[in-house]
Amino acid sequence: MAMRWKNTLKDCDVTDETLFLNRRQIIGGAAAGLGLGAIGGVAHAAPEDLEPNAYEDITRYNNYYEFGTGKDDPVNNAGALTTNPWSVKIVGLVDRPGDYAFEDIMKAMTIEERLYRLRCVEAWSMVVPWNGFELADLLAMAGVQSSAKYVAFETAYRPDEMPGVRYPVLDWPYVEGLRLDEAMNPLTIMATGIYGKDIPNQNGAPLRLVVPWKYGFKSIKSIVRITLTDTQPPTSWNKSNAREYGFYANVNPQVDHPRWSQASERLIGGGLFSKRHPTLMLNGYEEEVGDLYAGMDLTKNF
Ligand code: MTE
Fold it and tell me: Which of 61, 93, 188, 200 could make an SS bond with 145 (beta carbons 3.0 to 4.6 A apart)?
């Protein structure tokens, strides 16, 4: 944990000291209170200078349109979401289709910490210390059949608990999808925690996808259904505007959004001092996942 604070001097320079100390306590506290036994895996693809955002940044500035389109609507409204009991239906081209209770999933999985960049298509970013497990391990529980080529995901749809679904901002429920090789990549995780605490509702409790090399909208929250299929599944943002949001949604500084540049991003946190950083190809994970797109025209498959 401590190694993440290598750059503390830089951090002190730009952050009020009380805030800075609080942030350190949060991190220390999380480390002390983990109690999850299995945590401790070294974060994949985490360069040494990657510093996690404060817990407050990660949990108070969100996109979860089922609870409203404002950045603080999720923290204010998502408390209404019932996350216990919870189960995930895994169906389609699998050997053992069925309802998988969240507790049973958690008993079977090894929870690790992964420090990942999160780059939203809106050109802001954060660094998040997730806790979770590899999606491949969950899919193995259900037994993926050899004919499967894609994985489709669906978020809960609860009009009684989700005030945002009254508005046709998107075609509810929120759906997403990955190619099977993307889903099986070891960087792709299901997150169940942040800073060693259960993931808050506004971040997608009790389990959400995290695909760190893709724009944040691929990282679908509060998943209730996973379908293995042989055809490319529809995805919410692509359905709403196919010209602006592709199926792949790989972070790419060279392929601009039709309405704004994707060459740089604003790192959330730091208040007045928050500044723009250059956006990295595949969000900095090119070495790990670049091969998945060898030979593809990324301006067409955006
Ligand atoms: N999942 C659902 N179900 N609904 C959403 O509105 N927003 C996406 C993604 N997952 C969204 C969602 C977008 S645009 C982003 S950037 C990330 O969640 C934000 O994750 P965070 O709030 O944990 O930072």
Answer: 93
Which residue's alpha carbon is at the smallest distance from atom 9 of ligand 1? 217
Give the pLDDT of the chain (302 residues) as one tens digit per residue.
233 322 222 332 333 333 433 433 333 333 333 333 334 344 444 445 799 999 999 999 999 999 999 999 999 999 999 999 999 999 999 999 999 999 999 999 999 999 999 999 999 999 999 999 999 999 999 999 999 999 999 999 999 999 999 999 999 999 999 999 999 999 999 999 999 999 999 999 999 999 999 999 999 999 999 999 999 999 999 999 999 999 999 999 999 999 999 999 999 997 777 779 999 999 999 999 999 999 999 999 99
Nearest Cα residue to atom 11 of ligand 1: 64
For ligand 1, mutation pick of 221, 222, 267 (most atoms within 8 Å of CB): 221
Helices (H), the chain: 8-14, 17-32, 55-60, 73-77, 102-108, 135-142, 180-184, 236-240, 286-289
Distance 200 CA to ligand 1 centre (A): 13
Ligand 1 atom with the smallest distance to the CA of 74 is: 22
Distance CA 103, CA 125 (A): 31
Residue ranges lining ligand 1, Cβ < 6 Å: 62-66, 118, 120, 155, 174, 203, 216-217, 219-221
DSSP 8-state assignment for residue 93: S
| 269-275-279 Cα angle (round to 5) | 100
Return the residue whose CA atom lies nearest to atom 24 of ligand 1: 62
